[in-house]
């Protein structure tokens, strides 16, 4: 294939290897993939990423209009770069050390090696003067590595997860290398204004570079400087596709069927998360269990549906979390279930988007209780799906989505008493108030959809490259 004018570099390809499917691949359902899918379709670009399994050596290929460039990882690299450095060091550190980050030199070495492989693949795929857009914390060294290989390229980086306060970031033994890696980008995008602020502070503390508003003066090797931009671009969803699904007769009928299958409770509460310790699932279960024990809620009237999709299952902290959650669910159900009613319907599974929209339509209360979350697209998916202007979103202040979705019931998930009161308030909320809040939430999610997100980012990137910004 000829070289691409636009190259996305992400840890994962937008497809999963599936030997049973027609051509060996199927589109994968992840949040990032969903977010970038519409952009890629339009731009006719290339996507550099890992196919999700060790030792898979595959030549570049085209899939549904996108050129895919697979990067191969061996079993050691999956353990050290992906499970270790990305998901047992950066992930907990950047989510305010909810779990303890582990700092292993062998993991870091592997992270450097693999980042270089991604950078080389991106540099090889890009046409003269092309734009390269690097995604997320697994690839923080790639921007600077690409710049060194291909100074002609315009380089963007988007950080999908939180960027922590300097007091925490400073723990990282490789903090200089990470800041330097990110500063290789012309535009460094974050979910929240606070994340961009934390990053700028880290740049000042580690390198003493001048930062002014969103601009950072970065020295070049020849003594001149260039301006990098670090600012917030809150990500969103393909809102229109959720609206279309929510209006489909078969999906509306499926929502009714789900309700019936659950025994037609007065209220359905819903949690939808990757099974991750950042999501506050334990806090949610604690609050709900106590409400049943206190008699403020009853299994005759309410049920909690908790979808917890399997994630990073070989990382110790995730194995432990699964055990704890399944123990808690078992206890609550054991204590509170009747022959006819169950307190919690727990599903350790992932579902297609159609089924999720039916579930969103069936749920009277959506519980997003993350302890820390870059954005939380589930909150936006729920809002987009409520074409009937009904339903209540309970949303953690610690999710990026809280900056935009102020008409949700915002709460602090660490405050179990407050969370319990908020759940009761949501369950009892009159229809008129639901409508008022939901209309305002929907307006925001319709205006700021994923296409607008990528447009804003790519416009900022084009502008950052204009000569007057670099002296
Ligand atoms: O948004 C954070 C993120 O880590 C993405 O980069 C990733 O696609 C998603 O969560 C799921 O995680 P994983 O790729 O580790 O399964």
TrEMBL record:
CDD domains (alphabetical): GT20_TPS (cd03788)
Pfam families assigned: Glyco_transf_20 (PF00982)
UniProt KW Kinase keyword: no
InterPro entries: Glyco_trans_20
Enzyme kind, highest EC tier: transferase
Record-stated family: Belongs to the glycosyltransferase 20 family.
Protein name stated in the entry: Trehalose 6-phosphate synthase
Lineage, uppermost ranks: Bacteria, Bacillati, Actinomycetota, Actinomycetes, Micrococcales
């Amino acid at each position: 294939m000829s070289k691409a004018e636009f190259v996305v570099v992400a840890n994962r390809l937008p497809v999963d290897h599936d030997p049973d499917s027609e051509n060996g691949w199927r589109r994968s359902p992840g949040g990032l993939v969903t977010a970038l899918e519409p952009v890629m379709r339009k731009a006719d670009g290339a996507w550099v990423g890992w196919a999700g399994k060790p030792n898979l050596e595959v030549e570049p290929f085209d899939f549904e209009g996108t050129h895919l460039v697979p990067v191969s990882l061996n079993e050691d690299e999956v353990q050290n770069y992906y499970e270790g450095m990305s998901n047992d060091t950066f992930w907990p550190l950047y989510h305010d050390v909810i779990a303890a980050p582990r700092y292993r030199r062998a993991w870091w070495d592997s992270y450097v090696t693999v980042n270089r492989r991604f950078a080389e693949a991106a540099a090889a795929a890009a046409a003269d003067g092309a734009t390269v857009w690097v995604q997320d914390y697994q690839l923080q060294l790639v921007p600077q590595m690409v710049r060194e290989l291909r100074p002609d390229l315009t380089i963007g980086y988007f950080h999908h997860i939180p960027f922590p306060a300097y007091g925490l970031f400073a723990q990282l033994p490789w903090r200089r290398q990470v800041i330097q890696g990110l500063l290789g980008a012309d535009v460094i995008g974050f979910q929240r204004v606070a994340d961009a602020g934390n990053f700028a502070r880290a740049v000042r503390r580690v390198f003493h570079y001048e930062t002014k508003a969103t601009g950072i003066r970065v020295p070049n090797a020849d003594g001149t400087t260039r301006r990098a931009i670090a600012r917030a671009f809150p990500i969103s969803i393909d809102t229109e596709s959720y609206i279309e699904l929510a209006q489909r007769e078969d999906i509306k009928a499926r929502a009714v069927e789900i309700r019936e299958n659950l025994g037609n409770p007065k209220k359905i509460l819903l949690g939808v998360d990757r099974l991750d310790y950042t999501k506050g699932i334990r806090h949610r279960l604690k609050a709900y269990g106590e409400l049943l024990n206190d008699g403020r809620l009853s299994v005759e009237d309410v049920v909690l549906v908790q979808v917890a999709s399997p994630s990073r299952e070989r990382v110790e902290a995730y194995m432990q979390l699964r055990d704890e959650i399944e123990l808690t669910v078992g206890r609550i159900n054991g204590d509170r279930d009747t022959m006819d009613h169950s307190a919690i319907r727990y599903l350790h599974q992932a579902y297609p988007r159609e089924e999720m929209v039916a579930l969103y339509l069936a749920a009277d209360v959506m519980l997003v209780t993350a302890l820390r979350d870059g954005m939380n697209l589930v909150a936006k998916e729920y809002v987009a799906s409520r074409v009937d202007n009904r339903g209540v979103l309970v949303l953690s202040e610690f999710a990026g989505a809280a900056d935009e979705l102020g008409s949700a019931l915002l709460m602090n998930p660490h405050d179990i008493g407050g969370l319990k009161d908020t759940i009761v308030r949501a369950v009892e909320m009159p229809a008129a108030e639901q409508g008022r809040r939901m209309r305002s939430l929907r307006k925001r999610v319709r205006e700021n959809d994923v296409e607008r997100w990528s447009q804003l980012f790519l416009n900022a990137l084009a502008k950052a490259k204009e000569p007057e910004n670099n002296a």
